Amino acid sequence: MATAAAQRTAGSEADGAPDPVDTTAYQHAFDAAVAADERIEPRDWMPDAYRATLVRQIAQHAHSEIIGMQPEANWITRAPSLRRKAILMAKVQDEAGHGLYLYSAAETLGTGRDELLDKLHSGRQKYSSIFNYPTLTWADVGAIGWLVDGAAITNQVPLCRCSYGPYARAMVRICKEESFHQRQGYELLLALSKGTPEQHAMAQDAVNRWWWPSLMMFGPPDDESQHSAQSMTWKIKRHSNDELRQRFVDICVPQAESLGLTLPDPELRWNEERGHHDFGPIDWTEFWEVLKGNGPCNEQRINQRRRAHDEGAWVREAAAAYAAKHTGSAGGTGHETGATRA
Ligand code: BYC
């Protein structure tokens, strides 16, 4: 391990919480570790604002994973074949797993899952704008896989190099699974695109509806992104929102051609000089409205999430009772130990 991290660890272990006089030294060690591309680990000293930013981003990401289960789960009972149903169930289960890794990563920063879920349920923390759109046809499952998971991978592969160790490590596994998700969506859309004229039209309609919201997933334009500059200095984010959005557009254009589908943007064209595709303006009013809670499905998604949480109370109680029995400790809240007695 390089010097900066060694110093930092030694300092925090020897002294416990740093006294105010020592903070500058810790700050220098932290800055040096980030500059040297070392990982910050849970027991290392870190600035309060770095911790708060990570909790905000990881929580939003975790919430997106579990809310993101809803639009696709909507189609499990109506999948057109056993094979498609098995694939879709596996994908939705993977998303629950991603939520779990991410809530665990947030816990390493001292913020428990209960607190984060409370914030989600009371609207104090966000989840991705993309999941406030409805899944109207079976082709939407394909469009989500291709575009939404594709955008997620583009955004998340650089997070595997995030400066905070537990988040970066969680992202490695998540990205591998997202890659399978993206491929299943692409393959599903290809089958529809090459199918009957009705199936082709259904695939095209889904792509038309999901394209622009997928571009919004990368967040506001750089000049309106309040957190990007600081997050990039800390190497939490490695690229700006606009850089990643451009990368995604450049990846999608040839893929759409192979699919035999078009992207719903008359201004989309290759710009030789820039070496990138130009694309039309994004409706940022729509994005901010969705963030304010006014998207087509915001209310439905959060109500369903609260209901699922309430209906899962008995599982949490049973798990706490089981843990208490096997560790010999009361474990959890009084409510939970009540369940043990019952
Ligand atoms: N939706 O300063 P900015 C997935 C908020 S994929 C809602 O640029 P930052 C999945 C932002 O939080 C989706 N809110 O922020 C895929 C901030 O508000 P607060 C999840 C958004 O953090 C398939 C404000 O706007 N992926 O999970 O530097 C199936 C200003 O933005 C959005 C991740 O979360 C949005 N699209 O950059 C199932 C990846 N964009 O917090 C599941 C990790 C921005 O101050 N996250 N906001 O109230 C990130 O990479 C970054 O957090 C973002 C935003 C690029 C999203």
TrEMBL record:
Region ranges (Disordered): 1-22
Pfam family, one: PaaA_PaaC
UniProt-listed Gene3D superfamilies: 1.20.1260.10
Protein's name in the database: Phenylacetate-CoA oxygenase subunit PaaA
MF terms in GO: phenylacetyl-CoA 1,2-epoxidase activity
PANTHER family in alphabetical order: 1,2-PHENYLACETYL-COA EPOXIDASE, SUBUNIT A (PTHR30458:SF2), PHENYLACETIC ACID DEGRADATION PROTEIN PAA (PTHR30458)
GO biological process, one term: phenylacetate catabolic process
InterPro entries: Aromatic_CoA_ox/epox (IPR052703), Ferritin-like (IPR012347), Ferritin-like_SF (IPR009078), PaaA (IPR011881), PaaA_PaaC (IPR007814)
Highest rank taxon of the organism: Bacteria
CC terms in the record's Gene Ontology section: cytosol
